[in-house]
Write a structure and sequence with these properties.
By secondary structure, the chain is of the alpha/beta class. It has helices at 14-25, 55-64, 74-82, 103-112, 122-130, 142-156; strands at residues 2-5, 33-36, 48-50, 67-71, 87-90. Helix 4 crosses helix 6 (142-156). Mean pLDDT is 84; it is low at 159-167.
Length: 167
């Protein structure tokens, strides 16, 4: 089973819902899909869907899943990391009205530099679903974290939040 989760953000994440639906329709995904869709208005046909889940039910689904496809929220990332489950992250984007800013895109860019699976398109999802990788952000050294923060500052300049490590 594959679990897809978009969190509880007030904005829909229809782009991810569409990706999942296309992969199901084209039979690139041929296993059970469970979707926590939040405020999305597109629901993938053929998936078992829940708008929101209680924490215990959500964690049970994560444990049952072969892999989790999730939005690139910090809380979701830390939960998935703590449960030792292969996952693929998809960043919400301000461009598609999926969030108020691009902090998830910025986080995804940094995480991709340390080999965290980030899907930027449906093809990336297919690739990561076929060959899941178990990664842990806890394995990042302080030096790597500082280098990532510096890379983000160089790429994006001053962001909405101050990038700091170990503070």
């Amino acid at each position: 089973m594959i679990l897809v989760t978009v969190g509880t953000e007030q904005y829909p994440f229809n782009r991810l819902m569409h990706w999942v639906e296309v992969l199901l329709q084209s039979e690139l995904i041929q296993e059970e899909i469970v979707v926590q869709y939040g405020n999305s208005t597109i629901l993938p046909a053929g998936a078992k869907v829940y708008r929101f889940l209680k924490e215990e039910s959500f964690q049970d689904l994560i444990r049952q899943a072969r892999i989790v496809i999730a939005h690139c929220g910090e809380g979701t990332l830390l939960l998935l990391d703590s449960l030792d489950k292969p996952y693929v992250l998809v960043a919400r984007s301000q461009e598609f009205q999926e969030h108020v800013d691009d902090h998830q895109v910025e986080l995804a860019l940094a995480l991709s530099q340390i080999n965290v699976p980030i899907a930027w398109c449906p093809g990336d999802l297919v690739r990561f679903l076929q060959q899941p990788r178990q990664v842990s952000v806890a394995d990042v050294s302080n030096a790597v974290a500082i280098a990532l923060c510096n890379s983000l500052q160089n790429r994006f300049g001053q962001t909405n939040t101050q990038l700091q490590v170990g503070v």
